[in-house]
Amino acid sequence: MKFSPEKYKIKDERMQPFIDIEEIENFLEETKNPSEEEVKRIIAKSLDKNRLNLRETATLINANSPDLVTLIKNGARELKEKVYGNRIVLFAPLYIGNKCKNNCLYCGFRSSNKDAQRKTLTDPEIVKEIEALEDNGQKRLILVYGEHDAYNPEYIAHTVRLAYGVKKGRGEIRRVNINAAPLDIEGFRTVQRAGIGTYQVFQETYHEPSYAKYHLAGPKKDYNFRLTSLDRAQEAGLDDVGIGALFGLYDWKFEVMALVRHTNHFEACYNVGPHTISFPRIKDASGLKVEEKYIVNDDEFVRIIAILRLAVPYTGLILTARETAQVRDEVISFGVSQIDGGTKLELGSYSASQNEEQNLNKEQFAINDTRSLGEIIEELIDKQFLPSFCTACYRLGRTGEHFMEFSVPGFIKRFCTPNAILTLTEYLVDYAKPEVVQKGWELIEKEIKNLNDPKLEVQIREKMDKIKNGERDLYF
Ligand code: SAM
Ligand code: SF4
Description:
The protein is α/β, with parallel strands linked by helices. The chain folds into three domains: 21-76, no CATH class; 86-407, TIM Barrel, CATH 3.20.20; 413-468, no CATH class. Helix content is 47%, strand content 9%. The chain contains 20 helices and eleven strands. The strands form two sheets. It has an eight-stranded parallel β-barrel, surrounded by five helices. α12 (298-311) links the parallel β8 and β9 (316-319). α3 packs antiparallel against α12 (298-311), α18 (411-430) runs antiparallel to α19 (434-451) and α18 packs parallel to α20 (454-468). The model has no long low-confidence stretch (mean pLDDT 91). Bound molecules: S-adenosylmethionine and iron/sulfur cluster. Residues 100, 102, 104, 107, 109-110, 146-147, 220 line the site of iron/sulfur cluster. S-adenosylmethionine (SAM) binds at residues 106-107, 109, 144, 146-147, 179-181, 201-202, 204, 246, 280, 282-283, 285, 288, 322, 364-365.
């Protein structure tokens, strides 16, 4: 299908398709069998805080031998440790509605799936769900919608405002991100005005012929409209965007290259990369129809994450509960910055009792990490990761925080770690089980000591005391 700017009222010529299949294939072909020296040079470039170009990314992708893969994994781990430290940001997805006019063959929400019971949460149901999430300690949400006329920009903006308005006990939602269909420029302006954080649109597969095979009907058929969607977001003034590919639809090597190309495109046109990259793997869904040949195994998945970490060192990487607890635990150290916790996908399931839960709709796809938020936080603390619900940058208008974390010397020490400590303090005071509380304080003490900054320590302790005395939402 030809892309036509007129059709979508696009006036900015930057909104042109930018994925060149031949270019990506050539890079992958030309960089086969890289030497150890070359791979080491590229890793060193990344550790020196430089984004990799497409040729370098292709070289890492072609580094297949176990020794070279180990080098890449170690490089990614070192980068994550050196630059980002041990913080992991936590969030929860909330499915608002599964009506959908598209027919994506991999998704349980697709229009041809007659087994799916269609439902959109009512406003009181949304409030109930959010109250249940707040009762668990969640502060950051991503609202998810099928693609349907009912889920228009005004409705999305309405649900975002609704979410921000729910306050239960000491709970509140401080950041609402969106995963929904691509919008036109005016639509992005409408959701932007509701105060959203990140708008995510995953391209699913960047390989246009494969995209055509999986998207047979509905507006999502239009590859280019989707590809340029986040350019329209930028044009609307919404510069906080998340990209992603659904791994398992086409060759993972191609998709990793395309994600890096997409990142370069943003940097070249808007001087800012995407806020986050997501890399879901296809999971079981009701009536799933995908070819076996592109399914990504666990070893390949670890390589994907390590390569992305090195290739785009200042972009947040999101890993979801589609993965098992075991896989999540393994890959977190290679550069993941955000995970969801306590995830449930059936509409209405956060507030449902156990009995009610059995009667809920089948979810869009299977999740494999069914641990509660409390369990995940306890395990993160046990492994000496610092759980964070921080939303400070977004609240203070400091957009591009991943870039700042990466490029501004001392930013993490000055802002991110203290804010993670403060949000963990809130969690320990308000929601944690007694056995987690003690471990949590010990971790916080260790983190404060590691900062090695007496003045900052005083400031953090002052704020922690205020939290213990009932104040909330304190940050640097
Ligand atoms: N309807 C919107 C769209 O398609 O962009 C947003 C919601 S859709 C439910 C969110 C994402 O779920 C999709 O972009 C896709 O990557 C992912 N997804 C769909 N089916 C999946 C499956 N079987 N396994 C894993 N992820 C899946
Ligand atoms: Fe609908 Fe999105 Fe699922 Fe496609 S992936 S069927 S657009 S909900």
